[in-house]
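Chapter summary example.
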Amino acid sequence: MFPYPQEIHQSPFPDYRFSPRDYYNSPYSEGWWYRNIGAIETDERYRSPAQQRLTFVLVHGSWADAHFWDGVAAVLRRQGHTVYTPEYAGHGKDPNKNVTHAMVTMSVVDFIMKLNLRNFILVGHSFGGSVIQKAAEQVPDRIKRLVFWDAFVLRDGQSVADELPPQTRQGFEQLRAGSKDDTIMLPFPLFRDLFVNTATLEEARRMYESVIPEPARPLFEKLDLKAFYSVPVPKSYIYFFQDNALPQGEGLGWNPHMSTRLGQFRLIVGDGDHFTDTRTRPDMLAKKLYEAGRD
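The structure predicted for these 295 residues follows.
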């Protein structure tokens, strides 16, 4: 979704001579580098351990497509991991917006079965959380771990729309009613404040250029999730505490409101919003995915 060049993030200390004495791990280096008063030298005692090689299947959310993961997938592959980014029905170049949640889920399941994937980390972002819930019901023996990144974890009988704040849901219903093909297009002010709140205005506008209308029906369908809550697959939840797509408060938000529904789970936290970091800090997000998926 965001085929833009990655930005280079510089050290917060422009004059390296005054950098604090510490150890810095770059995703592009082979290990830890010692940094102190203008001198850079390696220290084998502080090298990071070799990463466990993992296979990731990354499932995007609403108002996105498989390109959403391009930067993150590139980082993970450079680190030696295997990465797949399936695109599901009604998204990307698929012109048919008349899709159901079952069709969306089957796109992911068919992708897994066609490639005969096993022992992989299945990651769902946002709406993709509901997709991996349903996919896990169908191929539980193939999944090593489920990872939800600021993603919906629905209760049995719920829809994604049921978890939206009343004002947001009403707005979506109005946008749906005003469309000609049962889709919802995010107005830029809503996208800016809820999805890319940490981005610069220029970054937000560039990302918005690739946003296309989202099929509405899967967001409002109530799902039978009884089988999901008996799936014995390990689970992780990644929570970015500047993610404003869902407001924080009692009975709302990503964590702990959604995450604790998983029962026993691994919690990984980060500093980011709902969309921006896939483009501006893919190395950080790749690190969080690895921490959530590793043994």
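To summarize the output: Confidence is low (pLDDT under 50) at residues 1-48.
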